[in-house]
# Entry
Amino acid sequence: MVDRRHTDREYEGELEKLRERVLLMGARVEEMTPAAHDRALAWTSHVVHALAYALTGAIDHTDPALFALAGPSLRDATRVAGSPAELWRDIFLANAAAVSAALAQLGGELERLRAAIDAGDAAALEALLAAAVAAKRRSEGTR
# Structure
């Protein structure tokens, strides 16, 4: 929210100083609306944590002994589930609409994978996986 005690010119000057500091730290500056920020963080951080917690919980409810068989993939996928529950409870609730929308969309993707596996539809499964591989490759040039 803009502090109305300052003029737009003063605000822009302060914003420019902040941009310069962020750039000096080696970060990239992205300006966006609060709604775009919430959506971006939901997808790039919050859903990742939700997945880690859900995967860890699902394995624990299925057979906790499976953790002893875990290789690097499972360790990588569940690493952030060791983050404080209270912190992530508050983050999920503070950004509930964007997190919920992202989880719903992700649920659709998981359902498409499950349906292809259940149907034994090798072509559909390969197409879903290949599309994800292509998206991953495209995304690697954006960071």
